[in-house]
TrEMBL record:
InterPro entries xrefs: ATP-dep_Glu-Cys_Ligase-2, CP_ATPgrasp_2, UCP005522
Record's protein name: Uncharacterized conserved protein, circularly permuted ATPgrasp superfamily
Pfam family, one: CP_ATPgrasp_2
Domain Circularly permuted ATP-grasp type: 74-449
Organism: Roseospirillum parvum
């Protein structure tokens, strides 16, 4: 899927001038042997293989695992650019936390007519079981990944919010580790803000979320197991935080308290960083056929005996039909104007929007409202007539399940490819943490579309990653 029209290049202006954040890097590149990048690229690939940094691809035979392709040319942001981005994503997450609390309590935003009631109360991600419940500290979203793109006008826009079980932070950390090994001289020359404190900051926020009165709380990471696409990340983060990686059968509930089985006997668990979707957490409350969760976990949660991060029911706020209303949430709850704009979006539940989208399917990107990972999308400019026709039938069968957005001209960043250095489209996922306050690690996961002209950056769809540098001066 190629972009039409002008595209903003992260490194070079239209007149050929190198942008300020890249000038030190360009000077290094000018005096560097052209073969060095190729050698470093091969070394990076070898290091990733040795470290076992993989992800599983759903739908492939034998649960195939792949390396996520890594690019050795960093994506560089200035301090001023990061100031805007970090303020915008933190503002957004603060409003989303307020929104989730509201819809499970007084529902003021519905009564004020700012968000249609049916979008919330009739949504599959709305959990009636959470009505009236306030988690410790009032925090619902402890970890968020906010996908941001830069358009041809050099403006940052939020593409989508990821609040249920956002992934990718392990690649942010490992990308930095690899780059520091391969290019120590660059880090001597460039004042790059560190990201390696993320696991410590995450653990501090999780411990802060523990039920009241618990000194030195026990935190665990709950994974669905090694066949999950993000299992490497689960194991990596647990190891980095120094906490136990557990599966459902490692935990049990007794007297509304969660315990972990250990060789020394049962040990109480205070906080569960869960990487399992709501439906599979507790077979007594949600899906009775789930073998991944812990029977009785929800009752312990409701009784305030354990904290779940992120909270049950947060999926309502990263629903793509709700996304449209986040700027209004910021105004409603925070009394502020949004720092970052949304991407224009059509809602196919609305007759006028649906008519427009159906007339322009070949030009637009259409997504399922609960979709993720690039699955279930129609990328109009890349689709065949047969694919467009089949997708049209899906839309007509259930219009409310879809939204559409323009085919954005995502910014490009210089990328090392087989032919040398060439521009490739990128997005950015900063990771926002909420505890006593809402913060974001400087940088995030830059995803890059490695195929020439492609705008699809998802790793599941052939995209790769880059280290993201935020300059401190």
């Amino acid at each position: 899927m190629a972009a039409d029209g002008p595209v903003f290049d992260e490194m070079t202006l239209a007149d050929g001038t190198v942008r300020a954040p890249y000038r030190t890097y360009q000077a290094w590149l000018d005096r560097t042997d052209p073969g060095l990048l190729a050698r470093r690229h091969a070394q990076a690939d070898l290091l990733f293989r040795r470290m076992g940094i993989t992800f599983a691809v759903y739908g492939e035979a034998n649960g195939a695992e792949r390396l996520i392709p890594f690019d050795v040319i960093p994506r560089i942001l200035s301090r001023d650019e990061w100031k805007v981005l970090s303020k915008g994503v933190c503002q957004r997450v603060e409003a989303l936390n307020r929104f989730i609390h509201d819809i499970y309590h007084d529902q003021e935003i519905i009564r004020a007519g700012k968000v249609p009631a049916e979008l919330i109360l009739g949504n599959d991600q709305y959990r009636e079981e959470m009505r009236g419940f306030k988690p410790p500290g009032g925090v619902y979203v402890h970890i968020a990944g906010i996908d941001v793109v830069r358009t041809a006008e050099n403006a940052f826009h939020v593409l989508e919010d990821n609040l249920r079980t956002p992934s990718g932070v392990s690649y942010m950390l490992e990308d930095r580790e690899i780059m520091m090994r391969l290019f120590p001289d660059l880090f001597d020359a460039c004042p790059v803000a560190p990201v390696n404190h993320y696991p410590t900051t995450l653990l501090d926020n999780l411990e802060y979320a523990a039920p009241g009165g618990r000194d030195e709380p026990t935190v665990v990471l709950l994974t669905p197991g090694q066949f999950n696409s993000a299992y490497f990340e689960h194991a990596f983060l647990a190891d980095e935080m120094g906490i136990e990686l557990v599966q459902g059968h490692d935990l049990f509930v007794e007297d509304d308290t969660v315990y972990m089985r250990t060789i020394e006997g049962p040990r109480r668990v205070d906080v569960i960083y869960r990487r399992i979707d709501d439906d599979f957490l507790d077979p007594k409350v949600f899906r009775a056929d789930s073998m991944l969760g812990v029977p009785g976990l929800f009752q312990a949660y409701r009784k305030g005996r354990v904290t779940l991060a992120n909270a049950i029911g947060t999926g309502i706020a990263d629903d793509k039909a709700i996304y449209h209303h986040v700027p209004e949430m910021i105004r409603f709850y925070l009394g502020q104007e949004p720092v970052l704009a949304n991407v224009p979006t059509w809602f196919l539940r609305h007759d006028d929007d649906r008519a427009h989208v159906l007339d322009h399917l070949s030009e637009l990107v259409v997504k399922e409202v609960h979709g993720s990972g690039g699955y279930g999308m129609l990328v109009g400019p890349r689709a065949t007539r047969a694919e467009i026709s089949a997708y049209r039938e899906r839309i007509l069968a259930d219009p409310a399940n879809f939204i559409a957005q323009p085919t954005l001209a995502l910014s490009t960043c210089p990328t090392f490819v087989d032919q040398g250095i060439a521009p490739r489209h990128v997005d950015l996922r900063p990771f926002v943490l909420t505890g006593k306050k809402t913060t974001v690690v400087p940088g995030g996961l830059t995803r890059v579309a490695l195929r020439q002209g492609s705008l699809v950056v998802n790793s599941s769809q052939g995209g790769g990653t880059k280290d993201t540098w935020v300059l401190e001066r």
